[in-house]
Amino acid sequence: MSLTNASPEQAARSAKISSRTLATLPTDARNVALDAIHNALAAAREDILAANARDMEFAKKASAGGELSASILKRLDLSRKGKFDDMLQGIKDVRALEDPVGRVDLRTELDDGLILHRQTCPIGVLLIIFEARPEVIANIASLAIKSANAAILKGGKESTESFKAISTVISNALESTEVPNDSIQLVTTRDAIDPLLELSQYIDLVIPRGSNELVKHCQRKAHMPVMGHADGLCSIYIHSDADMVMAVNVVVDSKTDYPAACNAVETLLVHEDVLDTVLPAVALALVAKGVTLRCDQPTKSALSKHIAQDQAAMLQTATETDYTTEFLDLTLAVRTIPVDSQHPYSAVDAAIDHINTNGSHHTDAIITASKEAADRFCNGVDSACKFWNCSTRFCDGMRFGFGTEVGISTNKVHARGPVGLEGLMIHEYRLAGNGQGAAMYGGSGGRQYTHKKLPFA
Amino acid sequence: MSLTNASPEQAARSAKISSRTLATLPTDARNVALDAIHNALAAAREDILAANARDMEFAKKASAGGELSASILKRLDLSRKGKFDDMLQGIKDVRALEDPVGRVDLRTELDDGLILHRQTCPIGVLLIIFEARPEVIANIASLAIKSANAAILKGGKESTESFKAISTVISNALESTEVPNDSIQLVTTRDAIDPLLELSQYIDLVIPRGSNELVKHCQRKAHMPVMGHADGLCSIYIHSDADMVMAVNVVVDSKTDYPAACNAVETLLVHEDVLDTVLPAVALALVAKGVTLRCDQPTKSALSKHIAQDQAAMLQTATETDYTTEFLDLTLAVRTIPVDSQHPYSAVDAAIDHINTNGSHHTDAIITASKEAADRFCNGVDSACKFWNCSTRFCDGMRFGFGTEVGISTNKVHARGPVGLEGLMIHEYRLAGNGQGAAMYGGSGGRQYTHKKLPFA
């Protein structure tokens, strides 16, 4: 890793060159580099924590002056119990993953002695832009090396001292390995993001990990693909036949397990037949957990008789904007789904319409006893993740069993939903023959392609 | 299909709405629509050819006035022998392909009664921009319906009458099917391309099928991903141990089978040890086929003694630009690859460097008897397709056995190389539980994820 004072263009160009060497290294060489990074960071713990303490000192002043939020201060602090060890363990976890490079996923005989195969390969150069958390740099460097991608890292300025200390350690550790030093570059230059986003000749993919504003900025400015999601506006629809206990558990978990997460629920849609049965139970449980409800007229009127006088402030009237707001807090928009008795699935369809129109295509759930209703909902909703009778909070790479999470994508190409190492790969085709030309095939008297599927092994 | 006078935004919005219905239709409903289109086009042959004749009349005048090339005129003519029948057969071929929708490619038990699966689904709305060939509209409409994607089509203005006739027939045919009429929209409004390229809220992917300029324009302007390639600058490297006959056959086929194709070879790299042996045989065969050679000094001097006096004009001195030019014609740039005797693979590495620096990451080939040299070449070259001892012309969806070709992509995400129906798909995750919340897992005493891989069936 180089801590570069190079221009964005120089950094990107040298990352591109290194990426070709990195792409040809065997699994072992990449794993050895991960071991070297792990051990070097473990040995340099004191120096890194001292650098982090300097960042914290600055940040505390800024926080006292109101320029920095308490939550950023907390994320910045690498001396919090377990945080450094978690960072080290993260490198070991990534090292332990199966090598994603060179997996053959298609093999075809085009003709006798003309064999095609497709195999996974790294994308090339990643630009990863993230905010204050200093341990992210070690995590991202590990993912990049494991997947044989070069990476340009641009972190938040609050972590500058920590980043410099960590990147110096990683850089020295890589010196003794086959992984080219320039494959991981830390860019600290102020205002480097916009020039980097234009260098599509060197950078193949941008992964912004941070605020909605950061992601939207990248989506607007980047000349190369951007992977990720700006908004996480997740909804849950409670169908007429929903089990009351299940509805309470799923909605409470989805809203309160970690309200600031992108996979927390923001809108609750309720079938009009259960406004007086399931909804009050759900609402009381939410209010008990401190959740404010922004309700439309029918749900508010149904709930007003259940909410105690001293909690009346938790029951508010929704505006239209509430249904397109990602609260990231203990606030939930609630809306009735009306029924057209002429059409058996009118309510499910109305919920689908609401979600496709107002949601962010991230994760949406239905609570119902009916497989038919669940299937109709999952088929109709245009989201990366469609859940039935479980919390939206399960939308997560670790929970899905990917071993790691690069991010959650709401893109409609390449990778969608929680993204593991697989999302950092693309494929290439290799064809081996013994002198064949295309003119030999087809027409009258020409050879015919056999197109025989072959085993992958 | 609607032939729309709607604004680009109205067309895109209605395509988006239709795309959700289309995405939920079963295989049969989509195949029935393909049959209906096929039969309706077959029945309307005379009307369509009459419309095409009107386009041809205009075009011939433009061609006579020098405003339209003879090759566009030829592509425009739907009355050429076999062309209409090929268009009809193309619809049947697409119908016969396996349904790409709803294929499960991952299934995991996260916990007892909490089952995750991933399945393929359509991308949503495609914007397909193409040039004069009128039969392309039927091909693209078929691919879109088969893959359950809505599509907005924008064709070249020279084919307007043909497009209108074909789209009217398709529109009437779809009326009797479950496929929503708005799922395929033909936009004829002049200058509609740029506004469409900004509608990322409705359009998920752009597929430009046409000139380099069209592709580059889309890549620059589009707010959504663009699939395709601008340049096809393919190279072949002849290694020191190449078989002479094989080299002749592969290079001649790669250059002359169809010189205007993106997978034709444009640069020939030759190991310096075979300048006087393999190269002359290859060069004489090329010259006999009418190929002009643009050579560097060593290859020109090696060849000058072999080329007959009356063909001396076919042997020219290369400029640097020739090595970055896609000739699309019977012209080939030739360059020597020098050897550093200290390093066993110096020539292969120099060829790789030349290709990665000057090529377009499309298709590149090596001719060698050595598996080691071939592997080193294929590992080092950063291209979608890497070929060993066979023609670059094999880079093609039909030849690869995909049954169809949506295009050839040099992108580093989503799809790379020849793209079949698979490239029009993305995936979604579905999770089914019985009331689980994320807070139940982990920590001390919490449940543990099982992450058990399940069979797909």
Summarize the structure.
The structure is a homodimer of 457-residue chains. With 457 residues, the first copy, chain A, is α/β, with parallel strands linked by helices.
Provide the β-strand percentage band of chain A.
Answer: 15-25%
pLDDT < 50 stretches of chain A: none
Q: What is the class of the largest domain in chain A in the CATH system?
A: Alpha Beta
Q: CATH superfamily of the largest domain in chain A, please? A: Aldehyde Dehydrogenase, Chain A, domain 1
Instruction: Strand order, main sheet of chain A: write it out.
Output: 11-10-12-9-8-13-14
Total number of β-strand segments of chain A?
18
Kindly report how far apart the N and C termini of chain A lie: 36 Å
Summed up, the helix count of chain A is: 14
Average residue pLDDT of chain A: 94
CATH architecture of the largest domain in chain A: 3-Layer(aba) Sandwich
Helix content of chain A: 25-40%
Question: What is the oligomer described by this structure?
Answer: homodimer
